[in-house]
Fold:
Amino acid sequence: MDTEGSISTIKALFIRDPEAREAEFKSFLSMCQALIHSSSDINQHLFRTKYEKTIIRLAVECPLLDIKQASDEFLRINRIAYDPSFVETVSAYIPASEIKPLSGEADFRSDREKSLYMTINQELFFTLGRVTHLDRIMGAFPDYMQKHCEVIKEVLFESGPLQFDWRIYIAYMASAAHKCDYLMSTCEEQGKLYGGKASWFSPQGLSEIPAKIKELSTANLKLAHRPWEFDENDIHALLGNWQISELCHALVILCVFHSLSSIVLGLGICPEYDLVKQNRRASISDDLEEDEDDYDRIAGGYLTYTHYDISAHRRPVRPSDFNWNDQGFNIIEKYLPGIAEKLMNRIRYTFVMTFDTIGGEEGINTANLRRAIWMYTQRVYGLEYDDYDYSNVNEQIKRQTKTYIKEVACAPHRVTRRHIELIDMKLIAEDIIHVNFLICEARLETELIYTTNAVQAFI
Structure:
């Protein structure tokens, strides 16, 4: 589906004033009504391909009651049938009953959390014309959701060294490194929505991508799959054409979207209803080999994770000598102060985030378990802390849970429902989401450590 001309032309979705929004949306629906009843097959096809699925999504997944009700009424009058349960399938692994509703009554631990959740949803909707399924998953933890939104806003939309169309395409490249269709589709839609170059996202668009962006291919693949191989030589090769502030911005985008791919694929997040046809596996090729080639072309080549045996290899980075809190943050802050602060806030919050519950039981101290998940995630990427007793990992995390953590961190495209079913801990849906946040942030911190260590070694 070509999103250009669908979301971007429904201006009502971005109007905050209720009366003005109602009038504009009514005008949009009248236009759709005319297309439906047109004698022209072209006009009817235009409605079906560009607007019908979006209206269905709005009838089911809109936080604004006026838009939701008007969409539902339009579909009823025009006898357009749909399956609400299919439209609202947020995750293939997390039951729908465990996903917070966008409107109406939602069960939260406090009124503050509920208010924050509703406020974020409305702000997201006015910004993007949707609350993504990734955001809905994060709604289980509104404070984390808020910090995530702050990171994405700062990295992609606020002032910085890179222009927007470059930022969003670099995020697209990063998502392709893990074959993350969902993030690729959302990057494509946001690129078109905010004036990016639509042709860049077409199957033939690679020829139009600036050579300077393509130079990031090696960094993209190494940071995604073998970050311990990324070093000052890679920085040196890139600084021939990149300014250091531009390069830091690009590398941070890669790191952020690699880690987000782990959440999306680790939790089986499904595309929103009007983005389903943008799934690259369905739209580009039915041939698996061609599919793989397409991801590789966008990501910049082929590379996979390989086990890093810390006992047999020299550690390229020792966190006791170089870590994110003491050194890495300062390097990013020097060139990207706003981004550095938002990254630090989210990483620090996730490390300590807890409700002292597990498996539905309250009053449980989860500090040792949370730290074990964090340390194990970073160890499979070659980071080992001298002041941590790694026997705690084996005490806290059993074999099948380790398998899930490693797959989510290192090869998230291979995660299936079976991986979750085999987790040998008593976890409810909220716990599984929490575990994925820990993996995501531990992985993000790892990539940032390797990235900033390489920058420091060069400069």
In short: DSSP finds 23 helices and two strands in the chain. The beta strands are 357-358, 361-362. The chain has two domains: 1-88, 91-459.
